[in-house]
């Protein structure tokens, strides 16, 4: 995955985290069907949105993890992504290096917030 596609995915995750569920979407009927399926499922034990914090979900998305991953998994993903997108790897192109710097800052912030959340 290139740096630009990674940044696109982060921006898309940030945009989707800030949206309300009342916002109409193109596939809102499919989403409603999926939501109803999860809410009535016996495996889930209740509502699909119980305890779902959009900010925390955004941090998990930034680290390319499913919501609710443990601290060890978060740390491994953070280290893997830092190795992949470290600015020193992209020092030949100044635009990519600047993008990598911003990306690493976002990864560090997401890791810090998840670490605080999971340490409670």
State Rg.
17 Å
List the helices and strands in order. Answer: HHHHH
The total count of helices amounts to 5
Could you say what the CATH architecture is? Orthogonal Bundle
Largest sheet, in brief, is: none
Low-confidence stretches: 21-49
Q: What is the highest CATH level, the class?
A: Mainly Alpha
Structural class by secondary-structure content: mainly alpha
Shape: globular
Q: Indicate the CATH topology.
A: Helix Hairpins
Helix content: 55-70%
Distance between the termini: 33 Å
Give the full name of the CATH homologous superfamily.
DnaJ domain
Give the overall average pLDDT.
76
Strand content: under 5%
* Number of strand elements: 0
User: How many structural domains can be distinguished in the coordinates?
Assistant: 1
List the helices and strands and how they pair.
Layout (H helix, E strand, L loop, with lengths): L2 H15 L10 H13 L13 H9 L8 H15 L8 H26 L1
